[in-house]
Amino acid sequence: AGTALAEAIPGDSLGFNIKGVSVKDIKRGFVTSDAKNDPARECNNFTAQIVILNHPGQIRAGYTPILDCHTARVTCKFSELKAKIDRRTGKVTEENPQFVKNGDSALVVITPTMPICVEVFSKYPPLGRFIVRDMKQTVAVGVIKAVDKKM
Fold it and tell me: Phi first, then psi: what are they for 127, rounded to 5°?
């Protein structure tokens, strides 16, 4: 019912069929990729730079909000607060902070509680940016700097 395309590039939204795969087998957040060239994989965790936009208190290691990345929506744990970062210069202002709050930018290690496929923002931007949601509102936004992929 659509237009045939010769190719699609990262970020394009399209529909297609795969022989032997039922539409019932496909779930929200699934990612397709070239199996022979940097295949998409589930991650163990990832390191991201976040900016806290709207949180009433302090965010500490162990915080477990909902993360929306591409079409995926997964509960994730902030397993480590690595550093507070100056938003303008990108320089580290505090190593291993106890907490972050509104207006802070930080480097954090995030561990998903369910399978999710994410990528480094500089390589695949649509799979490397996300929003953090809690209490039915956007708490923070972030970009992924490194991914520990499952093999």
Answer: -100, 5
> What tokens appear for 6 in the block?
């010769």
62-105 pLDDT, tens digit each: 999 999 999 999 999 999 999 999 988 989 999 999 999 999 99
Determine the residue type at 97.
P
Q: Contact 107/48 with Cβ under 8 angstroms?
A: yes
For 82: left if phi > 0, alpha if psi spans -120 to 50, otherwise beta; the answer is alpha
- Is 120 within 8 Å of 147 (Cβ atoms)? yes
Question: What is the C-alpha separation between 1 and 15, in angstroms, rounded?
Answer: 10
Q: What does the DSSP assignment read for 7-30?
A: ---TT-------TT--GGG--TT-
Chain center to CA of 74: 9
